[in-house]
Design goal:
Blueprint (H helix, E strand, L loop, with lengths): L1 E8 L6 H13 L4 E6 L14 H12 L5 E4 L11 H11 L3 E8 H4 L8 H7 L1 E5 L15 E3 L9 H9 L15
Parallel strand pairs: 1-2, 1-4, 2-3, 4-5, 5-6
Length: about 180
């Protein structure tokens, strides 16, 4: 049975922080693969997705092309919105019964996890691997049995920071994977 980590997000754009954290978790949490699940839109529509799904998928495919343990997935494209994590993981599990899926999230999301749609069901059926995020250290104190904390390096780069910096004329080419041009 393959052990797959699901790293879900808008990747708007993908940056080296995403890749470094996913690489660390894949290597140190004994995952066979990490699937970057690119969501067409956030479930609550509260996040701006400035770039098309096709562009974000292409960026990710470019960014991970030389690392065989990473895969890009547009799985949610076949689901109807809103895209709730539990529904997506259940549909993935049904389509891939030979895989064991774990959800990869930052401590900032873990801090509000109890507000996620069907969070209890998600915890009962899937493992959650939480990586550190600045400002969310207290969230790491509460942990059910199906949650593991991974001491991945703290990398404070966000897609929002990159988009805003680029709009103001900053050159952040070294924050982006090789071949990604905004």
């Amino acid at each position: 049975m393959l052990s797959i980590g699901i790293f879900s997000g808008s990747f708007n754009p993908v940056h080296i922080g995403h890749l470094a954290v996913a690489n660390y978790i894949c290597e140190y949490e004994s995952l066979d693969e990490v699937w970057f699940l690119v969501t067409p839109q956030t479930p609550y529509g509260d996040k701006v997705v400035e770039y098309s799904l096709e562009r974000r998928l292409l960026w990710l495919q470019t960014a991970i092309r030389d690392y065989p343990k990473f895969k890009v997935s547009d799985f949610e494209r076949q689901l109807s919105p809103p895209y709730y994590t539990y529904r997506t993981l259940r549909a993935l599990q049904e389509q891939h019964p030979d895989c064991r899926f774990s959800l990869l999230i930052g401590a900032d999301n873990w801090a509000i996890f109890d507000r996620w749609k069907e969070s209890e069901a998600l915890l009962n059926e899937f493992q959650v691997i939480v990586y550190p995020r600045k400002g969310a250290e207290d969230a790491l104190n509460k942990k059910p049995a199906n949650v593991r904390f991974c001491p991945a390096p703290l990398i404070e780069i966000s897609s929002t920071f990159i988009r805003e910096s680029m709009k103001s004329g900053k050159d952040l080419r070294f924050f982006l994977p090789e071949g990604i041009v905004i």
